[in-house]
Automatic annotation (TrEMBL):
InterPro entries: Prp46/PLRG1-like, WD40/YVTN_repeat-like_dom_sf, WD40_repeat_CS, WD40_repeat_dom_sf, WD40_rpt. The keyword Repeat applies. WD repeats lie at residues 16-57, 58-99. Signal peptide: none annotated. Gene3D superfamilies: YVTN repeat-like/Quinoprotein amine dehydrogenase (2.130.10.10). PANTHER family: PLEIOTROPIC REGULATOR 1, WD40 REPEAT PROTEINPRL1/PRL2-RELATED. This is Pleiotropic regulator 1. Belongs to the WD repeat PRL1/PRL2 family. GO terms for biological process: mRNA splicing, via spliceosome.
Length: 168
């Protein structure tokens, strides 16, 4: 279930129904009135924020879509999944532009760089950096014993404008 809250009145003002299972992530587009949600049903869903209408069902992943990011420039939507892939989407067409298959394990976290046209994805095997718009592989970030030092799962990540990345 996805709910829209009015923070001044502390009340739910809209519901978005359509996911067949748990919702894992959501992102608001920075310039369009659309919301993108993703979840265990292996889809990302694009919603008109005002009318609550489904605009697109972005399908193609075969596992839980664990993270979703929106940006103004193409690709406007990027998803990562527990199927070990990352997809770059054409928001207007509702179709996959590129599928990145470099990860060997579930991709549970993703971060857009705030000033560069890049993004990073994390799985237990490593963290990878990609260049937009086509998703060209740039580099791996790997520490002793893997990303977490013990092969653990990365569930969250963020990057700031000073090129500092955090993972959890």
């Amino acid at each position: 279930m996805v709910k829209c809250w009015d923070l001044e009145t502390n009340k739910v003002i809209r519901h978005y129904h359509g996911h067949l299972s748990g919702v894992y992530a959501l992102a608001i587009h920075p310039t369009l009135d659309v919301l993108v949600t993703s979840g265990r049903d292996a889809t990302a869903r694009v919603w008109d924020m005002r009318t609550k209408q489904a605009v697109h069902v972005l399908s193609g992943h075969t596992g839980t879509v664990s993270a979703v990011k929106c940006q103004e420039a193409d690709p406007q939507v990027i998803t990562s999944s527990m199927d070990s892939t990352v997809r770059l989407w054409d928001l207007a067409a509702g179709k996959t532009m590129t599928t990145l298959t470099h990860h060997k394990k579930s991709v549970r976290a993703m971060a857009l760089h705030p000033t560069e046209f890049t993004f990073a994805t994390a799985s237990p095997d490593n963290i990878k950096q990609w260049k937009c718009p086509e998703g060209q592989f740039m580099r791996n970030f790997e520490g002793p014993g893997g990303v977490t030092g013990g092969g653990g799962i990365v569930n969250a990540m963020a990057v700031n404008a000073d090129n500092v990345m955090f993972t959890g």
